Fold DUF3494 domain-containing protein.
Amino acid sequence: MKKQTNKITTLLFISFLMASTMAYSQVGIGTVTPNGSSILDIQSNDKGVLLPRFTTVERDAISTPANGLIVYNTTTATFNCYNAGWKCFLNDFILPINGGTGIANDNTSTLTLSGGFPTTIATTASTAVVLPATGTLYGTATGSITATQLAHSVTDETGTGSAVFSENPAFTGVPTGLTATIGTHTSQLATTAFVLANINPSKYSSVTAASSISTASPTAVVVDGMTLAPETGLYVVTFNSQYAIDSIDKMAQSIIDLNAVYKTLIEKTATNTSHGSVFGNGETLTTGVYLLTGAGTIAGTLTLDALDNPNAVFIFKIDGAFSSTAGTIVKLINGATASNVFWVVEGAIGMGASTTMKGMLLAHNGAVALGASSNLEGRMFTISGAIGIDNSIITIPTYSSYINLGMLSSTGVFSASGSVSNTGVSTITGDIGTNEVNILGFETAIVHGTINLPSYSNNALATFSIYQNGILIPDSTRIRTANTNTVDISLQAVTAITSGQSIDIRWKIDFGTITLKNRILTLINVR
């Protein structure tokens, strides 16, 4: 009996040793035949394996985690593995694995990345990577996008567009967004760095000047040196400069200019001294300087013929009073213009009712009167005397005069020392001015201009504009005044330019002088 008990004890001991050895080699849960390649084989049709669950804070509190330690992160809802730091497993992805280093792929496949974590995609050959419809692709280090990759480019999912990234300037680790926003339809997108590094010099031009220049021109003239003639294209035009306005006393300058006009005309050498005291009555005269040594009159019709010379000048110097009979008509033919017709009279000037008159009426020592229902294309000036208008029309000529009128270039009626009055519903196109206090009766008149008294504003107006091939670009004009001097002027326009056309900056000032310095004109081609 004792011998049999010993045999049973020995068999149990051997069985225990064998079981221990099997347990040490493999463990099967839910199976008695664990897979030969596994140390732990768990099989179940209705349950899974639940790993330890941690928040990020709890996970980071694990003391000295071993490489390979796996936990489930409840904060990020991902599995984490420790390998010299906690790593995050990718969720919901399917990739064929061909045994290469890292993730490699020789077949068409889909890679889905969930969560907001940085991801690196690396290939060892020419594997194509198809990007999702939304999101941003960028390099994060110098050389992260190579010249070979640039040559192959990156195509969108339709294959119709490309995103171009720059190697120079090099990436600095800060993501560089594309120059176009999401949804923009374009055949090519580029980073701002790429555009700036690859600007075609022929699509950008600029001219600068530091010297001081000035003008007193009342009409727009080109600013010296501020002209460019680019290639065909759409351009942004910009101009900037410092400026200063030197204003003057407008009334005093008007009187100075009026006396200068009189002096210029009266000093002209006569070309005809034999004409009688009466002009008109069907007469036709050609260009010249006509001198009457006494009073003069116009009657009937007088025709002034320029003989197709647009610069023809007619000057009538009358050493006495000057008048017209009622219904007198002065006609201009073959290029003659009212801006170059001058009646310079030493005495008073009186136009009869219903007179149709052409040219400047300038009295040196006397009044000037325009009879009822008359029509004057010209100006009424007097150095010493009053001016009277009776239910008439006065229009300053549209052409510039061959004589510099200075401050009076926009003026239709002016007396240096006398009152200016109106009767009835007259229409005056042009400024009205007098050095006397009295301007009367214009309540019933229609005035297309400014009525100026001795105390009127000396606030000079300077105008700057952009011109294309001699034509003003709409809305490019800016005005500055002497009373509100802003120190600098900036202009901008966008315009389509054809090769051979020019862009220039023009300026003018109604009176006084304007000065520019440190100016720059720039054209940038835009697409």
In short: The first helix runs from residue 2 to 25.
